[in-house]
Amino acid sequence: MKPAPFDYVRASDLDHALELLAYSEGEAKLIAGGQSLNPMLRLRLAAPTLLIDISRLPELRRSEDSPNGLRVGAGITHYEIERGATGAAGALARLPVLGRTAPLIGHAPIRTRGTFGGSIAHADPASEWCLLARLLDARVTARNMDGEREIPAETFFEGFLTNALHDDEILTSVLFPSLPTAAVVLELTRRHGDFAIAAVGAAVWMTGTTCDSFHLALGGVGSTVLRATAAEQLLTAGSLTEAAIAEAAELAAQDLAPSADIHGPTEYRRHLVKVLTRRALSDLVQQIEDGTDD
Amino acid sequence: MTDKHLIRLTVNGTEHDITVEPRTSLADVLRDDLGLTGTHVTCEQGICGACTVIADGQAIRSCITLAVQVDDAKVETAESLGSPANLSDLQQAFIEEHALQCGFCTPGFLMLATWLLRDHPTVDDDAMRAVMSSNICRCTGYRGILRAVRRVRDAQLAERPYPS
After folding, report:
1. Whole-model pTM?
2. How high does pLDDT run on average in chain A?
3. How far is Cα A52 from Cα B122, in angstroms, rounded to an integer?
4. What is the pLDDT of residues B86-139, one digit of tens each?
5. Distance in Å, alpha carbon of B45 to nearest chain A alpha carbon
6. CA of A213 to nearest chain B CA: how many angstroms apart?
7. Best of A9, A105, A107, A192 to mutate (most B CBs within 10 Å, chain B)
8. Do B130 and A103 touch (CB under 8 A)?
9. pLDDT by residue (tens digit) across A212-256?
10. In this predicted complex, what is the ipTM?
């Protein structure tokens, strides 16, 4: 189908975008790459009266490394992250898992347009950036005409395709406050580029040879990205033996209630979580043995 | 009724000033306003890639790109690749390697491959296969397409001067 009619304006700067958004009283939608929004407009699942194009705002396309952590601009494209180009160059060096995760997102011609912040704001539980944000306890910066606030990933992803932004807010950047010693993101798709049927992220923080803490995040198995806290506690309290990994995988899949769909019944996704958790933790062990994340 | 926008697109080297509705895709502008029907619209949802063009040096899906989003861009379509008398290397390889049957997906594959070899001329077989699997072909089973791209990649690499 073709989209319903709407107006369009390219914001001249961030303040201009914020003004337009505020005055639209919820009738406008922001567009950056439009790789999720345009298909929705074509299916008429969304019918805004105004699109505000923020794709070229340089304020949104920088990344910054500081003692507070790594900040990634919302307007950086997946492909720029994959190639370590423009605003993403420094970010890749600081958080290499970004570069390994980007190629998992859709297909290359989608990655050239789609943006990091757009994906986070879209809040799809199968999204790789949402998984990584939740895995690493990222903090989302939301800005409106009155100022800024930081929203932790845990509260930012409210539900299926639902985020905690107010109608007048723009997601400007995402901060990764604590960079892990090693991190892995794995997903299961039937064909390369499909939406993940299930995805698992694993990260470890170490001091010397001691593992201080583990995080385990699960995507595509609930209405939002989940953290497997029981498995995390087991791993953090003990060590990364094969037995511990197997037990963590069981714990991660417990209490999950993923939907049944054309890909398979509920039990299928629970099974995938176990398999992917074992693989992700084994990959993590390999990274640690190889001398962490270079 | 929404206002139309005047946009400028440089398509295959020629500047065009066109008045478009904001909701019109780049694919529809190329085909309907500029008569460049080499770009094919198929799924119109950004899934199949038959609509792939190159905008400002990047492969994009023109059916899920609004024309207004690429105002001021330099766009390359399948028409830029060559002419019947003077086919591009990829076009020639596609013929010789049986990389097309009905031909409906072919412009999209050619633009994707053209971009890939330009952006990443030393791409290895696995990465090349991953990128080329972006698009859907229902006829060929893909092997001819991969052979064609591999052949042109290798030929282009062989022509490059050795780094000094």
Report:
1. 0.95
2. 95
3. 38
4. 999 999 999 999 999 999 999 999 999 999 999 999 999 999 999 999 999 999
5. 5
6. 34
7. A107
8. yes
9. 999 999 999 999 999 999 999 999 998 889 999 999 999 999 989
10. 0.94
Q: Do A109 and B61 touch (CB under 8 A)?
A: yes
Q: Are A79 and B58 within 8 A, CB to CB?
A: yes
Q: Which residues of A touch B (CB under 8 A)?
A: 1-8, 10, 31, 34-35, 38-39, 41-43, 51, 53, 55, 79, 103, 107-110, 112-113, 191-193
B163 to chain A, minimum CA–CA distance in Å? 22
The structure tokens listed for B30 are 């190329």
